[in-house]
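Issue 218. Parser rejects a valid record. Input:
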Amino acid sequence: MAAGQYQAFDDVHLIDGVRTPLVDYMGAFADANPIDLGIKAARAVFARSGVAATEVDSVLAGNMAPGGFDQYMLPRHIGLYAGVPVEVPALMVQRICGTGFELFRQAGEQISAGVASLALVVGAESMTRNPIAAFDHRGGFRLGAGVAFKDYLWEALTDPAPAITMIHTAENLAQRYAITRAEVDAWAARSFARALAAQQAGWFDGETVAVAAETFELAGYRPRQLRLAGKVERVERDTHPRPTPPEALARLRPVFEGGVQTAGNSSALTDAAAAALVGNGAAVGRWGGRPLARIAAAAVVGVPPEIMGIGPAPAIRRLLAGSGVPLAAVARFEINEAQGAQTLAVARELGLDPDRLNVHGGAIALGHPLAATGVRLTVSVARQLRDIGARWGIASACVGGGQGIALLVENPQAGAG
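Output the parser choked on:
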């Protein structure tokens, strides 16, 4: 048996998906609880698709760091305030950077097992609202003892097993694959240029809902408030894409002396939520529309923590081996750009054509709101397949701690081939 886990799904369909704009750290979403961002995305996917929330029989929601003291309630409150019936259960899902993909995998499992026919999946993340936390003071503060409050976001970037940061894992890959700083900066510049071109062409409009301050009512319960920071009244577009030529990136100082990774060629910190509806053929029939895609298969593998960024490569290999789809038949790849060197290492390992990889930019230009990323990438690759009339696409990500996860997406309208 090959390493990792592989699952094929025969009757699992991505009906539709939508996301909020990806907004820079400490920007307009700084005061927005990720639960409320998730509710907004969930309501938007119902409105855009025309599927009734009352048809949902499973809620799967993902989130990494708490953006409020009510984080435990995130999946339940997203479902309830989005209009899903109170009798429908909700589950929190977490696979770090792979959480959004894991949502689809678990939806596929539930649908294949016959315990659900239509699932609402939502990834919501506020990087801004990661807390300043302490785990050592439940018993109080002794005189003269150190105070152990730390930045949750910063500390989470270190894997204590190999005792290195996530960026250090990318530097390890740069050394293994002989990736230079100039190559990483060139890839980052391409990511920004592609994202800007897609934004200017209106391509992201097809998957994005504008966000304004809003009250979410739920009969018999307290209303929730989606708040925007400062004087911002409305957010319509992703905020991080900007003109970023290689020469500008070359002027940035590397995180580690002599290294290739900088603040400019690593994934941006952004806040966002993304939602999708996943159903079986019966659910699609009741709805009466044409699904965006079919979720054909999922694969997840483990890799050494010190090179966690290579995870997509073996995950994609496992996915293709299980499905029998050749690499050359995959028209589009969306691989999360955790760091530039990490993405280049995966592309080099698999021999990927850069013209089929992250064609509308990646997380370097758009950002990586952890749990929302996998949902965004899966919806994006499905939309790309429909645009170009191609059959197969793959969305994938590395996972902190040493994992890789990948989804095989099919455009049934493209036919065999």
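Fixed in the parser; the record now loads. The CA atoms of residues 3 and 317 lie 10 Å apart.
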